[in-house]
Design goal:
Length: 502
C-alpha cells in the first residue's frame, strides 16, 4: 500500500509528497543550521505519519513531548537505568506504541548512554515484533560524532555502535532511521552514508555546503545556494521524495515545541533604586569577601639580574633509586596472555557476558600475581577478541593481520572477535568457520544469527561470501588480499571454543 505524506509545497500549487513506504526502506538524512526549520520539518513528518506507522523520537531537548497531547505518544523519561530503558524499548516494539524518549536534563555522556541502551532494546527485539517503526533522532551528531570529544571513549563507542546498527542493519528489523543534524561534518560518515533520502536546509560553512552538494549530486558551484535558503525551505532528493534535486517549503504543524526562539521584548522602566537593587545582596545570598589583591614584587635591579645570570649552573643530584622494582612489561604481557588463555579454555566462556569474564580475569590476575595495573574493561574486551582469534606469531607479524586489526576497530565491541575469527582463517588459509563455530564464539546457539553476522560484514564491504561447486563456503577479504579455504557452513558445533575454531 502506497501512502504519500504531505510535507508542504514544491512549487506553485504542487504538493511535496513523501512516499512513506519507500522511506521505511531507504531512510532519511536532514541537515540544517540552527534556525533553519529542521525541527519544524521533523514535527511535520511525525504529525502527518502518526496514524500510519509506529514512531519513536530520540529527543535531546524535550521539544517533541508535546506530541503526546494530540497524537497519543508516550513520553519516556530517560532518567532511568540503562537496563530498564532496554526492557522498556522491547515492550514498546511488542505493543506497537509510539514514544518520545525525553533526554532533557541529562549531560551529553548520559544522553549518549541512554539513547544507546534504548536503541539497543529496539534493535534486539524478538523477530515476531519486527513491525515497521519510524525512528527519528534529532541532533544526531551528538550520538554519532565524527571524532572523539570530551565524553568518555566507551560512551562514544556504545552510542556510535547503536546509531550504526540503526542505519546499517535496522531495515531488516523494520527500523527506519530519520536522522537530523546541524553539521554534516560533525556526523560520522558511516552513519550518514546509509541514508538514501536527503533534505538539505540552510547552512553557511563551506565544508557542510560541499558535502550537501555532493550528497545531492550537485555541482560544487551550486553549493552557494544553501546559504540563501529561507527558514523552512529545503532541497529534497531520494527515492521517497524526488529523483532530481527539488526545492520545497515545509507546511504548517499542529503542535509546537515547549521552547521557541527568543522574541524581542521592550525593556521595563528603570526603577529609581536600580543601583541599590544591583549592589545590595539579597537575603538568600551569601556574603563573600572579595579576594585580597597582593601587590606585585618590585622589579629586580639590572645589576642584580646580570649577577644572577652569571652564576654557575647548579649540578643536579642523581635521581634516587625507586623504592619499588620496575615492572617488566614483557612479564606483564605474558601473564595477561596466560590468563586470557585459561579463560578461553573454559567451554562455556563464549556464553558468558564480558562483565562476568572481566571479573574472572581480575581474580586470575591476582592469583598469578600479574604485575602492574589491571586492564580496563574496554582494553580487556579488545585483548579478549584478539585472543579468541588465536593467530600464531608468524601470521601476527604480517601486514594482513595488522590490517585486519585496524578494520576491526570500526566495528562494535561485540562483533570484533567474530570478525577477527574469520579474518584469522583467511590469513592462515584455513577453512571457513562453520555457522555453529561462529554462533558459539558469539555466545549464542542460533546459527541463523551467525549467518546474519556474515551478512552484516558483507554489507559493510569487509568481506565477500561465495560458494564453490561442492556447496562449501569461502570468505574473501578484499582489503587483506586473501581468502579462506572452502569450509562446510553446516558442520556440527565444535567440542570446545578454545582459540578460534581449532
Amino acid at each position: 500500500m502506497k501512502v504519500d505524506i504531505d510535507m508542504g509545497v514544491a512549487g506553485p500549487g504542487k504538493p511535496a509528497a513523501l512516499d512513506l513506504e519507500e522511506l521505511l526502506a531507504t531512510r532519511l538524512l536532514v541537515q540544517g543550521n540552527s534556525g533553519s526549520g529542521k525541527s519544524h520539518l521533523l514535527r511535520r513528518l511525525l504529525e502527518q505519519s502518526a496514524s500510519w506507522v509506529q514512531q519513536c523520537v530520540i529527543d535531546p531537548e524535550g521539544d517533541f513531548v508535546t506530541l503526546a497531547d494530540k497524537f497519543g505518544h508516550v513520553v519516556v523519561d530517560a532518567q532511568r537505568t540503562e537496563a530498564e530503558l532496554t526492557r522498556i524499548a522491547g515492550r514498546i516494539r511488542q505493543h506497537r506504541v509510539s514514544v518520545v524518549l525525553n533526554l532533557e536534563g541529562l549531560d551529553v555522556e548520559q544522553q549518549m548512554r541512554a539513547a544507546a541502551a534504548f536503541l539497543g532494546g529496539l534493535f534486539d527485539a524478538e523477530r515476531d515484533h519486527w513491525y515497521p517503526m519510524l525512528v527519528v533522532v534529532d541532533e544526531a551528531q551528538l550520538f554519532a560524532p565524527a571524532a572523539a570529544g570530551e565524553v568518555a571513549d566507551e560512551a562514544r563507542k556504545v552510542s556510535l555502535g547503536a546509531m550504526t546498527n540503526l542505519m546499517c542493519r535496522g531495515r531488516k528489523r523494520g527500523l527506519a532511521g530519520v536522522i537530523a543534524t546541524q553539521r554534516l561534518a560533525k556526523l560520522a560518515k558511516n552513519v550518514a552514508a546509509e541514508a538514501s533520502n536527503f533534505l538539505m536546509g540552510r547552512t553557511f560553512l563551506d565544508i557542510d555546503m560541499a558535502r550537501a552538494a555532493d550528497l545531492l549530486g550537485m555541482d560544487r558551484r551550486q553549493a552557494e545556494m544553501f546559504r540563501d535558503l529561507a527558514r523552512g525551505h529545503f532541497v529534497a532528493l531520494g527515492p521517497a521524495l524526488s529523483r532530481r534535486p527539488l526545492p520545497l517549503t515545509i507546511g504548517p504543524v499542529e503542535t509546537a515545541a515547549r521552547s521557541s526562539s527568543p522574541k524581542l521584548t521592550p525593556l521595563p522602566e528603570a526603577p529609581e533604586d536600580a543601583r541599590d537593587l544591583i549592589f545590595t545582596p539579597g537575603p538568600d545570598e551569601e556574603m563573600l569577601r572579595p579576594p585580597r589583591r597582593v601587590a606585585p614584587p618590585p622589579p629586580m635591579p639590572t645589576a642584580d639580574l646580570l649577577a644572577q645570570l652569571s652564576k654557575p649552573k647548579l649540578v643536579l643530584e642523581p635521581a634516587p633509586e625507586p623504592v619499588f622494582p620496575l615492572i617488566d612489561e614483557a612479564e606483564r604481557e605474558a601473564g595477561i596472555d596466560a590468563v586470557l588463555g585459561e579463560i578461553l579454555e573454559d567451554p562455556d566462556a563464549g556464553f558468558r557476558t564480558d562483565a562476568v569474564l572481566y571479573q574472572d580475569f581480575l581474580v586470575r590476575c591476582r592469583i598469578r600475581r600479574v604485575p602492574g595495573e589491571p586492564l580496563h574493561l574496554s582494553a580487556f574486551r579488545r585483548r579478549l577478541a584478539v585472543a579468541r582469534a588465536g593467530v600464531d606469531a608468524r601470521a601476527a607479524g604480517g601486514d594482513a593481520w595488522a590490517k585486519a586489526l585496524e578494520l576491526s576497530e570500526s566495528l562494535p565491541d561485540d562483533l570484533q572477535g567474530i570478525f577477527l575469527l574469520v579474518a584469522r582463517a583467511a590469513v592462515t588459509q584455513g577453512p571457513s568457520p562453520s555457522n555453529a563455530a561462529l554462533a558459539r564464539a558469539y555466545g549464542t546457539h542460533s546459527e541463523r544469527r551467525a549467518q546474519r553476522l556474515l551478512d552484516y560484514f558483507e554489507e559493510r564491504g569487509l568481506l565477500v561470501v561465495r560458494t564453490d561447486f561442492q556447496g562449501k563456503r569461502i570468505l574473501a577479504f578484499p582489503d587483506l588480499g586473501c581468502e579462506t579455504a572452502p569450509g562446510d557452513p553446516n558442520a556440527p558445533e565444535p567440542a570446545t571454543l578454545g582459540h578460534a575454531a581449532e
